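Students often ask why we bother encoding 3D structure as a string. The short answer is that it lets us treat folding as translation between two languages. Here is a chain of 121 residues written in the first language.
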Amino acid sequence: MLIVVDAANVVGSRPDGWWRDRAGAARRLLMRLSTLDLPQPAEVVVVLEGAAKAAGSEEFAGVRVVLADGSGDDAIVDVVAAATAEDRITVITADRRLRERIEALGAESAGPSWLLDRIDS
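And here it is in the second language, the structure alphabet:
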């Protein structure tokens, strides 16, 4: 299983002041994801864009970070397109247009609450 996280979308789903420190918010998400216990083995890929990319200079156990050169959505689509055919891919985002793009490639989508509920439990 491959889980691709639209970090900007997940972080932005909770109005906790993340906009004051985008890199710090991304770092907190990455730390929480590094302790995530999923019921089945999964590779977790987090796509960072803009100011949040500063958090990508650190390593987080069990999490692969992709720094978007341009659009985070384009980077997510690239990760999905590069995945092997036997991977079950879930993209975590609430972005309707991104969901359409990744579902056209055979991936599934889930909203930020799906991930945040697992992180919070």
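Translate back mentally: The mean pLDDT is 93. Keep this in mind for the problem set.
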